[in-house]
Amino acid sequence: MGGALAIALSRAGFRIADITIRGGDAPANVIANIEPPTRLLRPDEAPSGEIVLITTGDPEIAGASEVVSRSLSGSETVLHASGSLDSSVLKACADLGCAVGSMHPLVSISDPVAGSTLFSGRYFCLEGDEIAVAAARSLAEQLGGKPFSVSTEFKPLYHAAAVTSAGHVVALFATAIEMLSKCGLREVQAQKILFPLLESTVANLAGQRPANALTGSFARGDLAAFERHLKSFEGVLDVETKRIFVELGAKSVDLAVRAGAEPSIMEPLRARIDIAKSEFEC
User: Fold this and answer.
1) 281 domain-assigned
2) Which of 47-51, 71-75, 85-89, 142-146 is least confident?
3) From CA 210, how far away is CA 212, in angstroms rounded?
């Protein structure tokens, strides 16, 4: 994330004054994509920028803040890029007088160069004191991003929502691949078969509320199909996979009712789901 932001901000017209890498050298592909050339600093050297971005892993942010604070004047704005931590983790910089905040891009970055092109059109969650949020908003907008803010106390809940919409979807898709592979297909084949279905669902979600985008047997209140599903699991799937299917089925029924499904049609399915859930609790 740090490398991607440095490259993207450089291309957006910002001067990347320094890059500090703890141990080792900065990745050559990052340095090569920053113009004008930037300085590579040791952690104990003073950065010269007006805005300092801390893009370490979450457990290291507080320590990085302490190290950075020793070299700052107190007039700088310090931002970190964590999704789940709020600006209080930058206490060492705040005590010095710096404006502190967080700027979390809602985008998955696995490569700094390729990732540097992904910020435009993406949402950036901003949090912190007024000056820091204003600075973060300027950075996000210059990258073509769409900034929004949450209160400090909601930062972990915000991040949990992001994890659910991204990481948990990947885990759920992996579960679907596992289920289809039990039908005699190779996992790579199962992934190819299911992916277009996932794409069509994402397309539905792009223009509709989740309740209206829901399709399939749960949207129809199809109790018989659910019974067939449960029977097919016997001796094939582990308990946790069954639990995932049933728990999400309960959520799907709620969505279907919210979309206008007739409650009298949905109630038998809801009752059967409750029975299945109770069996997991025994």
Assistant:
1) no
2) 47-51
3) 5
Q: List the one residue out of 99, 149, 102, 101 whose CA is nearest residue 123.
A: 149
Whether 145 and 242 map to the same domain: the answer is: no
Domain that holds residue 213: 165-275
Q: Which is more confident, 281 or 187?
A: 187
What is the C-alpha to C-alpha distance for residues 78 and 19, in angstroms, rounded to an integer? Answer: 14
Question: Which pair of structure tokens corresponds to residue 142?
Answer: 């210059």
pLDDT per position as a tens digit, 143-190: 999 999 999 999 999 999 999 999 999 999 999 999 999 999 999 999
Question: Against a cut of 0.85, is the pTM above it?
Answer: yes
Q: Which amino acid is at 138?
A: S
| Closest C-alpha among 165, 114, 106, 109 to residue 140 | 106
**Interacting residues of 154 by C-beta distance below 8 A, sequence separation 6+:** none
Q: Is the peptide bond before 36 cis (omega within 30 degrees of 0)?
A: yes
Q: For 101-146, how does the pLDDT look when each residue is reduced to its tens digit (9 = 90+)?
A: 999 999 989 899 999 999 999 999 999 999 999 999 999 999 999 9
Residues whose CB falls within 8 Å of the CB of residue 199, separated by 6 or more in sequence, listed in order: none
Domain boundary residue, one of 92, 120, 153: 153
- CA of residue 273 relative to chain centroid, distance: 30
**155 contacts: CB under 8 Å, gap ≥ 6:** 83, 84, 85, 86, 102, 125, 127
Domain boundary pick from 104, 121, 153: 153
- In 13-170, the DSSP E strands lie at 18-20, 39-41, 51-54, 77-80, 99-105, 123-128, 146-149
Whether 65 and 178 map to the same domain: the answer is no
CA 233, 239, 241 angle in degrees (round to 5)? 70
